[in-house]
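Async update (no meeting this week)

Hi team, since we skipped the sync, here's where things stand on the single-chain job. The sequence we agreed to prioritize is pasted below, unchanged from the tracker. I ran it this morning and attached the output directly underneath so nobody has to dig for it. Comments welcome in thread, and please keep replies under the output.
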Amino acid sequence: MFDSQGSIVNHFTATGIVFNSKKQVLMIYHNKLHTWLPPGGHVEENELPDDAVLREIFEETGIRAKILPNREELRITDGRCRVLERPFIVLLEDIEGNGRHNHIDMVYVCTTQDEEFKPQKSEVSDIGWFTVEQVDKLKTYDNVKQAIAKAVDYYEYSPAISSIQT
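Output:
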């Protein structure tokens, strides 16, 4: 995808690696891309990325998730500034393989107590909870498998996880 001058086009996106209480990962089968992915999508104009990821997760799956806290704590008192949730990882994804259309993907680790989903049929043809071993066998991109494997370690050793799940 090029702009009117044929320049590089970059889009900001947000993805959620969502864990349930059984440490399984939420994955969707994306209709357009014909592959399994964690839920996510484009950050809309004037939308914050940490809001976008939660919106996309809900729109695509019906799951209400929470971001696993990963932000720096600052003592900001003037009310004109706040700290946003920090992504677990930020990826630059070359969508068309030619470097001209990129997604700057802010990937968040999320949790949910919801187990039942309502897939958005226009974008999602299948959905499920998978162990990391099952994700490794799904048809998906290598960067997805690697990010999920790292997110499992982060999730299991995060001090914030006990406060979210109680």
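Quick observations from my side:
The domain at 9-165 is CATH 3.90.79.10 (Nucleoside Triphosphate Pyrophosphohydrolase).
The helical segments are 49-61, 132-135, 142-157, 161-165.
Reply here if anything looks off.
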